[in-house]
């Protein structure tokens, strides 16, 4: 059973790993241009699996910011992962030890959360490990390659790589949206509300992207829970 979960995770993690490889390539280039060594850039990606957090983090480093600036920056940008972790904790098998729960939490990203929450029934940590076994090497090795040879790549090619992650995320969201009207409504409502934060000048200037994601997530999910409640299914599968 564990092996089957792990294999399914690997299968679902392959496109995520490929998408991460493309995006992290750009991060590796930026990190080296700012003064980091390829090994330092690789180590950051290996231990901190968050694209927005890493790009913002190296910006603080290059600006000679303080540790408090780094902490606050990461807290604001990555706070949305707390919400994702709360959701995953309700889906994961109940008898799973805390060590496995911490392991699953380490790999929470937007895309990994998307494929994990879409799984039918309870979530096995071995599925998460399978996804992470593709995603983490893809992100880390992409960073290393970008840091080592990104300087010789055409700017147009590097810019095109950054679009790959968005296409991959659409591939995660669209299939369940076609099958479930409630999910489709949540996706459309989230897109509409997020657009308001960019259209309305006051919101665009005063609300960071990290807080915007948190606000949209809370508001839309609360409304969806009230309008389209889902009864919890008991599942004691181990």
Please provide a written account of the structure.
Helix 2 runs antiparallel to helix 8, helix 10 packs across helix 11 and helix 11 runs antiparallel to helix 13. The chain contains 13 helices and no strands. Helices cover 79% and strands 0% of the residues.
Record the SSE blueprint.
Blueprint: H1 2-33, H2 38-47, H3 51-62, H4 67-78, H5 80-91, H6 98-106, H7 110-117, H8 125-149, H9 155-161, H10 164-179, H11 181-199, H12 201-206, H13 209-227
Helix pairs in contact: 1-2, 1-3, 1-8, 1-10, 2-8, 3-4, 5-7, 7-10, 10-11, 11-13
Return the average pLDDT rounded to an integer: 81
Give a short account of the largest sheet: none
Low-pLDDT stretches: 234-238
Amount of beta strand: under 5%
Distance between the termini: 9 Å
Count of β-strands: 0
**Rg (CA only):** 19 Å
Overall, the morphology is globular
How many distinct helices?
A: 13
Which structural class do you get from the secondary structure elements? mainly alpha
């Amino acid at each position: 059973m564990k092996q089957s979960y792990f294999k399914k995770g690997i299968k679902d993690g392959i496109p995520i790993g490929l998408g991460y490889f493309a995006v992290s390539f750009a991060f590796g280039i930026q990190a080296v241009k700012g003064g980091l060594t390829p090994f330092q850039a690789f180590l950051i990606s290996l231990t901190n699996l968050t694209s927005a957090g890493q790009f913002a983090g190296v910006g603080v480093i290059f600006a000679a910011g303080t540790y408090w600036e780094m902490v606050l920056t990461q807290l604001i940008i990555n706070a949305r992962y707390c919400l994702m972790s709360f959701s995953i904790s309700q889906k994961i098998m109940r008898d799973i030890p805390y060590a496995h729960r911490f392991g699953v939490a380490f790999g929470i990203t937007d895309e990994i959360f998307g494929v994990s929450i879409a799984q039918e029934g309870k979530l096995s940590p071995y599925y998460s490990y399978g996804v992470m076994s593709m995603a983490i090497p893809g992100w880390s090795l992409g960073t290393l390659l970008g840091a080592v040879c990104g300087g010789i790549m055409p700017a147009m090619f590097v810019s095109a790589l950054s679009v790959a992650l968005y296409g991959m995320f659409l591939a995660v969201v669209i299939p369940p949206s076609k099958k479930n009207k409630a999910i489709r409504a949540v996706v459309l409502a989230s897109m509409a509300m997020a657009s308001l934060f960019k259209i309305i000048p006051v919101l665009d200037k005063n609300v960071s992207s990290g807080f915007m994601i948190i606000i949209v997530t809370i508001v839309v999910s609360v409304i969806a829970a009230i309008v389209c409640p889902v009864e919890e299914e008991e599942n004691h599968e181990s």
